[in-house]
Amino acid sequence: MANPKLKIFLDTSALIAGIASSKGSARAVLQLAEIGLIDIVVSQQVIVEADRNIEAKLPEMVDEFRQFIHFITPMLLDNPSPNEVRRFSSIINPEDAPILTAAVLSGADFLVTWDRKHFINKNIQLSSSLKIAAPGEFLKYFREYIEGLGSSQGRPKKQ
Length: 159
Fold this sequence. Notes:
CATH architecture: 3-Layer(aba) Sandwich
Strand order of the largest sheet: 3-2-1-4-5
CATH class: Alpha Beta
Structural class: alpha/beta
Number of strands: 5
Shape: globular
Number of domains: 1
Mean pLDDT: 88
Number of helices: 8
Largest sheet: 5 strands, parallel
């Protein structure tokens, strides 16, 4: 039986960093999606924010961004309702609550973000299995996850 792919919710900061950089951890996360090893999830808010910011700050990257979105076809979620967002407004900056809400509601395994101030350096307690990580931290987990799959299928674990 095939193991399920990890489902990764990308916020705007990680998505833009992955598009803008030809290397680096955010780009590597996007490459994992391109080759089908993980599934990417985004909300409409993430797509709109990323498109607006890329158009304003990195206009030369607009076509690459739009082609990438078309090519990997991330799972696109509707923005959460105000009632859904209210549930998380008390544990995170209210402006970031829609992103956290969408990530939790999506059933994602990880929320990958570069927002250390509001997401990573906060000890956010969730009643879900969602993990919040910077792109590099996620890649470390992914490496261990893949090695664990190999050893669970009778292959020796790399030393």
